Here is the input.
Amino acid sequence: MKATLKTLFATAIMAAALTAAQAAEQIDIATDATFPPFEYIDSEGKLVGYDIELMEAICEAAALDCNIFNAAWDGMIPGLIDGKYDALISQLTVTEKRRQVIAFSDIYDRPIFRFVAKKGAAFDFTPEGLAGKTIAVQTGTPMDAYVTSHFPTASIKRYDTGSAPYLELTAGRADLHISYQAQIIHGFLKNDAGKDFELVGPQLTGADAEEFGEGVAIAINKKNAELVEKVNKGLAAIRENGKLDAINAKYFGE
Amino acid sequence: MNWTVIAENLPLYAEGAKLTLFLAFASLAISFMLAVPLAFLRNSRVTAVRYTVLFYTLVFRGTPLLVQLFLVYFGLAQFELIRTSILWPWLSSPMVCVLLTFVLNTTAYTTEIFAGGLRHIPVGEIEAARAYGMSRRTQALRILIPAMLTRSLPLYGNEMIMMLHATSLASTVTLLETTGVARMITLTDYIQFEPYVTAAAIYLALTFVLVSGFQVVQRRWAGYLENRIG
Here is the structure.
């Protein structure tokens, strides 16, 4: 009996050590799932979206054991800096300010940014034209930085999630919201809630204002150069084998 | 550690602390005015009145403040009827929604605290008031309300502190009070410890002032109860 107990104990310790070793190799990747169709929770409670499929494909191509999960936007970049997460995939734009504290993979998309407003409402997109207008944005995003510096006399309302600005828009508390054009179309305008709204103003990119950054990439802890390399290899592989095109077509192909 | 960011944002913290104080004191002042009469109704001889007040306090003590705030701010806005009503100019303002929710919430707790104080007034004090031939109004103003308030003080002091801290929820609906300022800094400068520890220090300082003030009030008006304890 004593011997069996001992064996049992030893096995338990070995099993624990094994799981610990496996856990150490697992790559923890956080995403802010309030941004359909890029990352969101579906009606069954599952984490889905463009970024999620992209990340899974990269992990598969690079033979990485990835654990992708939902996390709050306000703690994401600090969490990556502190080593709580190994990487982030959340349509993160590469900006000079972020480059100082975190590393990025190669850019995988160059988004267009756009305003959205109630159908028929006309706006003059100059600092004077938007004076006093209420613009809803997600805090700490490139869109937030852009409106803050370009429309200082507008009333800017900031929210913790990517979805709250749409609630404010439909409630009539905000005149405008600015986000990724693809996110506005596929996450809002195509839904019932967005039927009275439309894209307005010019198409904006990193070329129009530096706040929009160079493009979107996967954020990785600065100390983990090895992971940056692996992710880039995975990204190159899915570009090559057509997997990236397939995901693009699935989400944005007409 | 990156304290320069905090130093640069001190004016923002000052604005945030001002808003925190305003939200706490405005909701507490309004709720005090409402809770005193409600405490009497909560002890009314008419069963229907007593239970109506109990229903209200039960609903607002039985649901989280954050859920109440989201229902008022985001929930009501969903109804076309409300958006087109004459109330919308008020209900569309986050400040009005926050104050309305805070007042409804803290009034529920305060009503129960005061109603409990009212029930624990010794019968002798009320009999003495009657023996003096005081009218019901005079009884209430000179005996019942002062006795109720002095007996409720320690519990009410706790409720005031809780309300001060609950104001941090206002940041979820765009009001930039102390916690909102801290969260904004975490999102723009990617640090977490420094902004939140600064916010914590502000709340601690405000609580200290509140508690000190309360001790003065306690000694001045509830001193006569002290020899009964211990």
User: Anything to note?
Assistant: Chain A touches chain B through 22 residues (CB under 8 Å). DSSP finds nine helices and 13 strands in chain A. Chain A has two domains: 25-110+214-252, 113-212.
